[in-house]
Structures are given as structure tokens and as C-alpha cells.
Records
---
Amino acid sequence: MGRMLIGGVAILSAMTLAASPSRAQDQAITVTGQAQSKWKEAESDHFKIYSDGDEKSLARLSGRLEAIHYLLKIATNMREPDDANIVKVKVYSVASVADVQRLLGDPSAGAAGYYDPQLAGPISVIPRDAGNSGTFSGELVLFHEYAHHFMLQYQAAAYPAWYVEGFAELISTASFEREGAITYGKPARHREGELRYTRRYPAAKMVDGRYLDESWDAENWDYGDAWAVTHYLTFSEKRKGQLKAYLNAINAGQNYAEAAKIFGDVNDLTREVGIYVDSGSYPYKTPPLPPEVIKAPVIRPISMAEADFIDDRITMERLARISSKEEYEAWVKVLAKTKNPVKKDFDTYFGEKTANRDKWMQKLRIKTAAYATDSLAWTVQAHAECMAKDFAACQISSDKALALQPDNWEAMLRKGQALLGLAGTAADADKKIAFKDARTWLLKANAANPPAHEPLYFYHQSFGAEGKRAPEIAVAGLAQVVDTIPQIDAPRLTLGSELMARNRFAEARRTLRPLAYSPHESVEQKRALALLKLIDEKEAKNQATDVPVS
């Protein structure tokens, strides 16, 4: 399929690297095209960064992100496949924290940056000026979230929630104090208050899984605790190799309590971590960066049309999509026993979301009209209309985009998506042809851009929508989708179900475990846990059936 997941688990090792040649991180910038707006795109091996700031800062951010990727790569012994068609993370560098919060849609959140693993591809939004956001800089947030992205993209496995966050916190403090090198392992100053002035959660209860039994209103581990335990187990010579063995044991099927036996007396671990934090002295490493890692990105100017639709692309999934009553009530049920239960009923939610969506869609259509001769504008509008399930309008917009640019693969995709939505409401006599037409356009989009994952996703979805069992080629395509955007829950859950239906239990378990053990509670996570339990029951039943009768 042109892509593969790398086996093993993500372990950040305290490695010592041989010196390698380095070069200045502020380099000559390769620029293509003519400037058309203040916004520019910097493209590197793993990122596309958009900014209306100065080019020097844009190039520096690009180099730092590639350095973070390199750090994660060498620290986890990840071998990046040569034929990978990587979905590059799109990073939007906006002026201020206020802009971040506006795009997030929650000015009261206090967010200094955020990461959103959208179906169309992962994005992150950070400020160029963090203002008075304290120690939580935009770069710190971005490094933290990219560690999550990396872990799922290249090292998908089952991890304890505290390790997922501790790993990301360890990466978040990476710094660039020496030219041509990256420093990691420095103290998490932004967590100092948690570690110094609040009661620490016992490391013993983290590693043996007792934290899972705590009620929502009880004291539990915090990010500072997660950082401290992860940092200690990563750098401690006394505990060398134990973290990797522990995670491997979990992924071999052991429960947390069994896996924690690797640490010996877990209460000793609690005492050691406490002494470690109280000492305030933490080891760190400064590996050199090879020149090819921090090479200058290719920077291109962005047209006025593309620039004007940046906000819409960022916020589209939040504004255009409205959950169904079933989805909303399932989410309410998940949050009912947490610190932040949902207090709105579905009708209130639906009314507010619909009003906001319609207001935004009206503005989007006015903007598109101003760029009526630009295929990109109609493509963005078609995407929003399909997401809002206005499939008739989506078909019209995608047709307009294709009339202006016949080879526009995304417009082909949106037309296929629109026809798929319309096929569901077609008369019974017309359904077969309607679904066939939808698949034809999805296959055209796939042929026009084979690495793109969305045509494969909707192609698979078309069979369920028609009430048919998906053929093997569609399931293989879905597997590539999960491989390409492993951060998205729905495709992973669907693939797990497909594999289960085919009695491919080992593959189903590998697919579902990263979701089931996600630190972020969700409807999909609960369903993944239920499916894993069902796999265990089915396998136990099969084994009982296979036992010979004496």
C-alpha cells in the first residue's frame, strides 16, 4: 500500500550520540513564485507551515519542527520507510494568543496553541507572540502535541495514559541553546507548581494501573507527575531498560499490575521519583543535528484567495459539522461522570450549532462569490457544504471547481462525497446507479492523487451506506487510511470492526488497542474497549471449542 507502520513502542531513550556535522539554523531560504499576500507557506519533509510573519522566523520554526521530528526518530529508534507518503502536519502560525483562541472558538480556554487531528489531515495553530501566557509558549504546546502525533503516526501501540502525556511533556521542553544541536530533558518549568506545591500522585499507582480505579472526583496523577515518572525512567541508570520492558509487556497482553512487576517493589519507585524531584537536578542530552535535518524549507507566497480562506479551513470541522442526536447523547453519557458534564440537551445544542453554522456558511458563500473564478474557493465551499450535509449544494460547488480546474482532485473527491450523500436518499430504483456514480468520482480522485486518504475512506463508507459488505479492496484502502491518519478515531474503529467480522482477531486487536488505551475519553474509545472485550470472548470460545473431548 506504499506505507507501513513501524513496529514496537515509542521509547524515548537517554542516548549518547556521536558528533555529526552541523550548520546554522538560520539559513538561506529557497523562495518560489511571486508574493501575492502577506501569507507564505514553508514546506519541509514533514510539515507545511503557514504564516503572515517574517520569512526568517518562518524558516526558523520549520527547522525547529524538523529537529523535533529527528529527535523523536532517533530517540525511539524509528526507521522511516523510504516510500512513505506522509500527510504533512499543517501548522498555522498566527499573530497572537487571542487569534489562537478565536480560531479554537473558546476565548476562555486560555489555550496558547492547539492541535486538531482532522479527517482532512492534522493541523496545529500556534501564536508568534505568546504574550502573557507564562511558561506555556506556542512552541511548547506544538512540541507536546507533535509528540502525540508522532507516537500514533509511527509507534501506534497501547500506552498507559500517564506515559502518553509524560512522553509529550518530555519532548515539549526541547530547546535550541547551541547552534546545530537540540537539547532535551530540561526541567518542565511549566509544571513546577504541580510538583512543588501540590500533593504528588504515587508513581506506584501509576505504573500498576490503580489510577484507573480512581473516581473522577478523587485525586489522580497530573501532567507534572507524568513528566516526573517518565523523565526518571528515561534517564535513570538504575532503572535502565525497565520502561521499555514494561511497555512491551503491556503490548504483549499483560495487565498493568503484571507488567509493573518489572519495577520490583513499586513503592520503592514512588520513593525514588520523590527524591528525584526534590533534588531539582535533572540530566539532559544535547544531540547534534545533521545538516539535512535543518535544511532550509521551500517557501512560496500564497495567493489572496488561498490566504482569505485560511481561517475557514482551520475552523471548518468545528463550525460546519453537527453531531447527530445519537452521537451527542453518547458523548453526554461519556462525560456524565467526569468533572465537566454536558449540561445542554440535544435540542439546545442543535439549535445553537445550526445557527452558528448557517451564519458562518453565509459569510463563506459571500467570500466565494468574490473569488468566483478561482477553483480553490469553490473547493473550500464544497468541502464545507459536504461537511454540513448539504450534498446538493456540495455537488454544485464541486462542479464549478471542476469547470475551472478539471484536474482538481479535491473537487473530484467532494463531488464523490456529495453524490454518496445524495445516493442515500435516492429512490430505491435509482440507488444502485447512484452509489456507482459516487464511487466513480471517488476512484477518479484516488487516481488523480493516489496518496490521498479521503477518497479511500469515503469509498469504503459507500458500501456500508448502501447496506453492502465492503469488498477486500475497500478494507485494504481503509487500512491505508488508518495508516496515513492514525490519529482519527472513526476509521480505526471501523477497521477494527471489519477485521473482527473477518475473524482476523490479532490484526483487530493491534488496530483497536491504541484507541482503547487513549488517555482522552471518547465515545470511540469506549466502543474500542468493548470490541477488545468481545475479541477476548470470541477467542476464548474458539479455544474451548478446539479442546478435544476425552
---
Amino acid sequence: MPRVIQNKEKEKLDLLIIKLSGQKHAWPLVDFCRRRKILEQCLANTLKYAPEWVNAAVEKKGLVPETTAAAEEVLAGPVVLARHLRLMITSLRQIEREGVPRCEGPLREIPNSCLLASKVFPLNRLDRIAFGGIEAEVWQAPEVTRANFDQQRARVYRAGPAAGRLCLVLGAGNVSSIGPLDVLYKLFHENEVCLLKMNPVNDYLGFVFERILAPLVLDGFLGFAHGDAKVGRYLVEHPQVDTIHLTGSDRTFDAIVWGAPGEQEVRKRTGEKQNHRAISAELGNVSPMIVMPGKWKAREIEFQARSIASSVANNGSFNCNATKLLITPKDWKQRDVLLDRVRALLAETPERKAYYPGAQQRYHRFLDAHPEAERLSRGVKESVVPWTLIAGLDPECGDEICFREEAFCGILAEVPLESADPQDFLMRAVRFCNERLWGTLSAAILIPPKLEKRYPALVDAALLELRYGTVGINIWPALGYALAVTPWGAYPGHRDEDIQSGRGWVHNTLFFDNPIKSVVRAPFHLPFSLPYFVTHRTAYKLSWQLLAMEADPSWGKLAGVVFQSLLGG
């Protein structure tokens, strides 16, 4: 990274850091009442400035206003932020009264393990109806038991005020809610004041976020920085920055911790870090989706094909959890049927502007390795990466780019595995994910109900082995990002020398201290389209109704959500 910034810019950043550092010991002493009022004002601001937020993103990403694609900016932006703020307010109120947030769902022991799972969703009847049978649970680390379950949550508030810290948050440039959510986590879960360095890709949203989070900014608990890599380099090395949180690339993490690319390998061997600060990070994934065999009904194929295509196309595929690899049974009779339907749906999906830097270069690197790749859309403009399928990969290929590198553009790959039976296939697929694929952020399993009924212990056995921070059963695991009650982050255990998807958690509004993974489960088929489906006919109207409901739930607002969901097809 370039290392020099202008003196005037440096002075401005130094003054901001001095201001924030002056408040870092005061923030842990702020009481629950004031914290709730801050969040309540941020929630009101989210509703007030949501149209500006969405309109700015739609314009910059080259989307057609008021379309299904534009709805993604509402759903992944203000809707997610509003839900997090509301649930965090509730949790803080419960921590003040009862010591921990209320966790209504039952606890269960995971078979053949010493692990405990806590059901965290749905929270109430409104959730149950609005989300159509979707459920979620959080798996806890081995040290969490029924006896000490409450003692393993909200430790930051039970331990009493600690020494203050200033966290530099390096914001993401793709999904707009990431930066604000990362800041809220550091402030309210770890008691650290924050400096949010906006990513140059979505720096245009800084003015919106400063308005939404104004109570924190005005009190000196949050600041914003703007600029290029030179500014980022100056900030990560600033002596008054205590900790760092990064959402982005493992290459950026390595540059911060280990120095320039030419120095990194030597430093990693010797353990000589360039930056010794505590760093949490979320760094992407080659996101797999394991497709279980069985006799799928036509409507099930259609529903899951829509989910797969949408998980690729959402946000132009510039998502750390975009599905990048389908793992299929080689001899499954309906393999080609499913793939053909995914092909058709992607071909029908309007192309997106490739707004994220480097997309064309990454795309052509994959095409150089796979000239047989199928372009499913035209992609005639330089500003577009076409939806592309690379099918029939060799699972034994040791240097397969689709296994070791995240495409971060509109590419979907598929690898068929030999298998003797469904149980054998699933465990082979799990081993393949753990041993061959880069990253541990999120994965998915699609399993028809008849097959799961035939092998009732199979899913838990696979979940026990899968080393991923969030696993979706019959659904795109990105929902784990949105639910707020589910911690979001890489599977624990990565070393700095091989950081892969990163370390630490965000979101987590139930304040679990020692989670190891989140599991989101959905019915194999639903009679309506989910809001993120690219085929949803009323997604834009639905997204604004979801925002109103998430900010202040009611049965009347739920009726509007259900109506638009049914109209969506």
C-alpha cells in the first residue's frame, strides 16, 4: 500500500483520532438508558434517511430504480440495519433488568458431541408468519453448558467497565449495511469507540451514515474517515489506534499484519509481524452449496433453482457469501435438470454493472483457466461481467482456481462427486468443503424432506463436521447475515499466518460470548418467493414494507408484508 499522505490530511486525521481517544474511557461508563436512547435515535434516523441511502446506491451501482435489483439495496441496507437496531435496543433493556438478553428458544444437545445448540429464531409469532417457517439456532463452544449458559453471554456488561479502546473499522465497499453494523458491534458488544474508514467504492454513502449515526458522532464516540489506501495505511499504523476490524480481502489483512507482498512469506515463517494490534476480520469465502440427491418434485426444483440463481446474482455477485460452487452427486438423475433450470434463470436475469474494482480482471483469470465456461448472458459491455457457469469440474484437480480463489463476480461453478449412497455423498461433500475449498464463512446444504426423514441424524452429523461460521439448510446462508440474532463470521480457529475468512463475530444481538456457528434452516419448498429472489415481482414494494415492520413490528404491517409476498410469485 502507498505510505504517504499530505500533511493537511494527516493533521485532520490526527485531530479526529485525538477526539475519539479522549472519549474511549468514557464510553464504557455510559449507562443503559443513554445507550438505548442513542440507538432509538439511530433507528428513527434510519427510517428518515433510508430513501437517500437507497437512491444513492441505486444510482452508483447502475440499477434501474424501483426494480427487483433496486429492492436489494433496501433489503441489505436499511432493512437489515433497522432490524439490528431494534433487537439491540430490546437486548440492552433485558440486560439491564435481567443480566442477559432473553433467549426464548429451547436448548438441545447435538448428538455425538459435547455441544449445545440454542434456538434463536423465530423470536415470536410475527417472525414465524413473516419468515414462513424459517428457523435458526446458534451452536455453542464446548465450554458452554446448560448450567452456565447465561454466564456465557453479555460478559462485557457483567464484567464491569474495562479500559477504553479505539477501534479502526475498515468498511466494506459492497453491501452498504456492513460498515454501520460493524461499528455498532464494536461499540455495544466490545465497548470500543470507533473510527469508520469508508471504503472508496461506497464512500458516497458516508454522508448518509453520518446522519443516521449522528448521536454517536456528536458525542465523540464515532468518527468517519475518507480517502484511498494511503489513508488506510496511515490509520492502521497510527499509535493511538488500539484495535482494528476489517471486512474485505485476506490480502488486505496480510498487508496490514505482515507487510508488503514481498515481505509476507518471510515474516510469516519467522512470526515477525508488522502490526501487533488485535484484529478481527471477515474476509470472504468460496461459498459452497451441497445438493443432496433424491426424487425432487418439479416445484422443488423450481424453488431451489430460483434460490441458487438469486444467491449468485444478488448485488452483482459482489457478496462474500454469494454461492460460488455447487457440489452435486455425479450420478443423480436430476442433476442436469437442476443445472439447466439454473442456467435458464441466470440467462433471464438482467446483467449488472460490474461496479466493484477488479471484476473484469478476476473474471478473465477464471476464463483463462476454463475456456469452456458457459456465458449465460451477453456481457457485451466492458462495464458488465456476464453470468457464467463452469460445470463438471474435476474434484481431484489440485490447483483448481474455483476451489482456491473467490471469484467475486458473476461466476458459478459446479463439481460432481462420486458416491455410493446419500450418506456417503454428504460426508464426502463435507470433507471436500473442509479440505479443498478456501474459506470458512458460509456454506449450504439442500436436502429434500423425504431423504432427511430417511436419515434423521444425517444433517446434524454433517453440521458437526462442517467448518463454517454459518450454514444454511435449504436456504442461502446470507439470511444468517440479516437475522441479527445469529452471529456472523468465520469458523473459529484461523491463525494470522493463514487467516482465510477471518476471525471474530459481528451482529449477534443476543450477545453470545462463545458461539462456533449459526445454522439457518428453511422448508425445502415454500409456496411464495423469498424477498431476495430475482424473480420476485413485487420485491421493491415488499422491501419498503419490511423496513416499516422491522423498525416497529405490528400485525397490520405484517398483513402488508404477507400480501406483497404472495403477489411476488
---
Amino acid sequence: MNSVPERDPNRVIVFDTTLRDGEQSPGCSMNLEEKLRVAKALEAMGVDVIEAGFPIASQGDFEAVREVARTVTESTVAGLARATRGDIDRCAEAIAVAPRKRIHTFISTSPLHMKYKLQMAPETVLEMVGQSVAHARNLVDDVEWSAEDGSRTEADFLCRCVETAIDAGASTINIPDTVGYAVPDEFAARIGMLFDRVPNIDRAIISVHCHNDLGLAVANSLAAVGVGARQVECTLNGIGERAGNAAMEEIVMALRTRPDHMPYVTGIDTTHITRASRLLSSITGFNVQPNKAIVGANAFAHESGIHQDGMLKNAQTYEIMTPESVGLTKSTLVLGKHSGRAAFKDKLRELGYELGDNAINDAFARFKDLADRKKEVFDEDIVAIVDDEVVRSNDRIRLVSLEIMCGTRHNPPMARLELDMDGEIKATEGSGDGPVDAAFRCVKSLVPATARLQLYQVHAVTGGTDAQAEVTVRLEENGKTVNGQGADTDTMVASVKAYVNALNKLLVKRERTAPVAAAE
């Protein structure tokens, strides 16, 4: 018989699935190095459980989960598995080296999913619940079971499945709102019903995994916590399939800000939130909307005169939390072209970066170059420099030089380009419908690919005409989608960097097998 160890009854476990469910968001896939950077950031935040991936999906996913399991020492590392022996065995193999490991296995339980997706009778599904959990429990001590489409599962059958999973050895039971269909009072009633009707419910922690299709993922998660759920599954910035998942930063800060209404705590160090959010955005190219709660650019901005007046008199008039509580510091002019390496290194440490000597030297050279071109260098500029260097650290193809001729006297626009391709310099020139098109055509002539451009997005890092441009490019090739990022004060240079970065990722993608779909 499994049992739940003594624990704080008001402690909420944070289960982060950015690396698994979050990565399933179109264009959001990460390579191994990027996944490890995110995993380390999550561990530093104090995340209890990191769902590292779906090991059976591909060799690349298996290796990523295994490396996260090797790297993370404080957080529990979980892998996802369907209710089959092959999935579960592969998952156990991937997480075997983790000091704290969990197998998370799932099967659909709603009438709609059982009939059309699984094409199984309810009794067969119930039998698979017991068998899969028991097999997983023979391999690891920590097993989580999920009822996919749990919010649309018939109550009686859900209770039977939960009871069976607990009897078979599951210590965590997850009820997902897989398609974001639930509303808070309804979802809370469903979780409360389990506590009332499942006889062995005291032997497991109840978890919830809510999607945001109706914009209610965070509200549904908090409603479930209010009636007894003690694990919340979420992602940084709320990324994930379709409209995304419950945003971890919103759940954590809601609990921290309203203890009068929700007397629950997490183990998250909230001062890491902004840094982790920015890291994920730089890796995926998914910029956070300005009015996004907690981590949006406008979350602590006040433009209204009435609001500004109140803020000057007492910040609490219009701020229910401090910027510092989520790791946000005021962007000020901190360094210039006369600043030395020691000051630059201190600033990197202040911003949360711990880089090796070679990486610091490369970033410092970029900083000095930027300081010569830009009147004011802000924290955001330094973040962009470092992230841009890290993004390109393992690229096989690199930009050497770019020259653009455009305007009223150059029709069509012309581009001259040099690329370093595995140590060999190749050059070309060409024209296009605009300067970006001309530059991208040159890249394609040197790096043949059938990739289709799905997204081209430019974002100014700071204000002013001399601001660095951060460019995101999304390419699709044979069903594989990748994002590339580039930053530079020259928007065209940033654009080519982003395009080349995406092509580098495609080179890696071509070596991976097609992934198996997973959902919750």
C-alpha cells in the first residue's frame, strides 16, 4: 500500500511542464542545450517537479529527458508515458539517473475520447489504468496517473479510475481540463466530488492540469486548490498547445498576493520569475504580450496621470505587488563605452548570468561594439547581447558579413552576403522584393532548403531609433517547425541572424524522427 508522507496541508506542489506540454506549442520546440538552460532556471526557482518530456516520442526527446535527469538534482524529474509497457519502460530508462524521478502515465477517460480516439470500452480502459500504474510502480517509487479529458469524464467512471490508479500505486492523481472546457465552479465541484466519493483518496495528492482555451486555466487551477488539490501543473508564460496552459507565474503570484483568501504556499523563489520568463522568450521567440499579467512589459507601467500621481504618493495605490518581488529591476543606464570588463561581469551576475570566460569575452566584445553605436545601454540591451550569443553558440552556419542596397535608387533592392558554413566562407549576392527578401534569398542560395517562412517578427529591445532589434523567424519544413532569433542595432543584420539560426535548428531537426503526439 502506498501512502502520502506527512506534509504541510497548505503547501501546493508546482509541477512545471514547459519542457513537455509547453514545447508542443507550434514553433516552440527547443534543442537539447536550450532545454537544459530552461531546466536549470526552473530548478533555481524552486520548482518541485519538472516534466522533462515524452521519451517515447523520438530519440531526441529521449536524450533530452535523460540529460535533464542527469543535470537536475533538487527538483523531481518526470517523464510522460501512455498506458503501454513500451512507453513506460522507455520513460523509466530516460529518468533512471535522476536523484528524484517520476513516471507520469495517462489514458483518456471521457466517452468522446474512449469512443473515437482509443476505440476502447470503458472496462478495457479501467483495466489498462490498473495495469499501467502497477507496471510503472514496479520501476519507480513515484508514479502519477492522469485522466486525459478528465473534465468531460462521467463522474462515476472517473471515481472508479482514480480509485483503481491509487490502489495500483499512484501517489499523485491528475485531473486535466485537456481542452480548456471547464469553468471554475464546475471544475472545483468535480475535484471536491473526488474527495467525497473516492474511498482511498487520502493516499494520493490531487493535481490539476488546465488549458486556457476559454482563458480560465489559472482561475480553474486556483478553484481546484481551494477545494483540496495540492499540485498545479503549469508552464512559464502559459505556453502550450492551442491557447496554452495555466501560467505558472500567475498562479504563484496569486497565491503569494492573496493569502487572506487563499492561505496556500509554494516553494517558488518569485524573484526568479522575470529572468525565467525572458529566458524562455529568447529561446522560443514567443514574446510576451505587453499587458500579460506579472511578466508583461506593462505589468508595472503607469501612464495615466491619476495613476502616476497615486504611485508617487504611495505605490500600493496602484500596485498590488512590487516589481522586485518578481525579479524586475528598473532599467537604467548602467554601462557605457568606457566601462571595463569587471563592471560588465558584475552586471551579468546581477542579471542572473553565470558565464564562462570565453562566453564573457565574446559578450563583452559585443557590448563594446554596441556602446560605440548606441547612446544609452540598458539592462535589456545586455540581456539581448548575451542571449544572442548563447543562441548562436553551437551554430554550424554563421553570418560573416551583409551589405544591403535599397531605397529609391536601388530597385529592386540588392544584398551581398558571406556565411561561414562549417569553417568554409561562402559568398553570394541577389535581389528581392525588399531588403529582407533580398537577404533571405541570398541565404537560401547558399543553404538549400525547402523550408517555408511562417513568421517574421521584429521587436525593439528598448526605446529610441538606435534601439537593438530582436527578430524572430519561424520556418517549417516537412512538418517540422523551428524558431530562430537574432539581435542587432541593424534590423537587417538581426534578420539574417535569425534566419540563419532557424536553419541551424532545422539541420538538427532533420536528424530526429517524427514525434508521437501527446496531449492532456
